[in-house]
Every structure is written in C-alpha cells, then in structure tokens.
Amino acid sequence: SQQGEEDPQALSIQEGENATMNCSYKTSINNLQWYRQNSGRGLVHLILIRSNEREKHSGRLRVTLDTSKKSSSLLITASRAADTASYFCATGQAGTALIFGKGTTLSVSS
Amino acid sequence: KAGVTQTPRYLIKTRGQQVTLSCSPISGHRSVSWYQQTPGQGLQFLFEYFSETQRNKGNFPGRFSGRQFSNSRSEMNVSTLELGDSALYLCASSLVLGGSTDTQYFGPGTRLTVL
Predict the structure, then answer these.
(1) I need a surface site. Which of A94, B43, B89, B93 has the fewest CB within 10 A?
(2) Which chain B residues touch A33 with a CB distance below 8 Å?
(3) How many A×B Cβ pairs under 8 Å?
C-alpha cells in the first residue's frame, strides 16, 4: 500500500526555474527520504530527513518536513535539463520496509 | 566502493517458467531489500534480508521467494511466471537492518518481461 503521495504527478518547467514537489503520508514515521529515478533505471538517494528535523539542504535541494501535517516538500532550485527524472518520497519506520509514493515526473526544458 | 550490482539486466521469459535474479550489495552492507516496480502499482516492497534471514516481507504471493548468502549477496526467485510479473525488479542495500531507517542504495534493476 502507498504511504506517501506526491503532488503534482507531473511538472514541466524551464531551465533556471525552481521545482517544488510535495509528499503527504498517513502514519507516524522515523524518517522521510527522497529518491530520484532516471527513465527506468535504479533509484538514487537524494536526502533523508528524520522526524525530529524540520529542514535539510543538500546542494540545490531543500527538503522540509512538517510532522504535524504529515507532509514534506522537495525544492530544487535553478533547475537544469539533467534534473529531468521521476522523484519519489519514501517513508521509513523502525521494523518495517520503506514505503514509496507513486512519484512526481519532472521535465525541465532548455 | 563499487555500487549495487544486479544481474541480469534484462530478461525475457514465457508464462509458467521460473526466473532467478541476483543482487550483490555494496561491500560491507548486510541488508538487502527487493522491490518490484510497475507503471500501475509503483514501487512495491518484496522482502528484506539481513544476515541470511528474511526479516520483512511484503504482500506478494508465495511464488516470490528469496535468499541471502553468507557474503550478503542475494537472489530472488519467481516461479510459475504470470504476465503481471513483468516489471523492473530493484535491489537495494543498506548498512543496517531495517533499511527503512537508513539510506538505501539501489542497483540498476533487472527488467523482466513475461510473454
């Protein structure tokens, strides 16, 4: 069953613009992770934010977590064509497997 | 360090056959998880192995099985293949048990097509 639900399902932007993706989940979590997948390949881990953290940065990525609203957002600043991919949030709880959402497909055109 | 490797990368089988997929985790990683990815269902957890023992299992029929060897390499087997088993099968490794509490490193996947 899906725990995380990303919004929007698809996003098209121009190079240089910012891209924001949101993720909502249903139950309490230990952490929330974001992954990127390029066209039918393996997933690449982007960032992990723990339940006691509110914001995390990694390069051009900024992730926020609001446990009271059970939601997270991923912001990619100054997007590049190479950022074109599907982005998944995944929630983690101790003793269980990661549960992935269905993803947001980001298309960045030059 | 070498990343997670999966073999084969592509596989075509017919209904009723069985298939074995292999995964070698990152050196030092003891947890291996398997996922099935399809356009309709997205990423679905199959099972997780740690120290040669299955620790978690997803909601898949008994036709899906796996094992882990003493060197942490893992295999998954699907018997009596059905058309709906066509998918990208992803393997992920992590340092600790309960990969959901730690970063998981994914392999490139095995694309299985069932005809």
Answers:
(1) A94
(2) 103-104
(3) 66
With a CB cutoff of 8 Å and minimum separation 6, the contacts of B103 are: A33, A45, A48, B94
Question: What string of pLDDT tens digits covers the 110 residues of chain A?
Answer: 456 788 899 999 999 999 999 999 998 888 999 999 998 788 999 999 999 999 999 999 999 999 999 999 999 999 999 999 999 999 988 777 888 999 999 999 98
For B39, the 3-state DSSP assignment is coil
Residue B80 to residue B41: CA distance in whole angstroms: 21
Cβ contact, residue pair B109, A33, below 8 Å: no
- CA-based nearest distance A79→chain B, Å: 24
3 state SS of B20: strand
Q: Nearest-CA residue of chain B relative to A88?
A: B43
Tokens of A74: 């991923």
Which chain A residues are Cβ-neighbours of B45 within 8 angstroms? 97-99
Measured in angstroms, the CA of B71 and the nearest CA of chain A are apart by 22
Q: Which residues contact A22 (CB under 8 A, 6 or more apart)?
A: A6, A7, A71, A72, A73, A74
Measure the CA–CA gap between B47 and B58, rounded to whole angstroms: 6
- CA A78/CA A65 separation, integer angstroms: 21
- 3-state SS class at B83: helix
**Residue B98: its pLDDT value, please?**
62
pLDDT band, very low/low/confident/very high, at B100 (cuts 50, 70, 90)? low
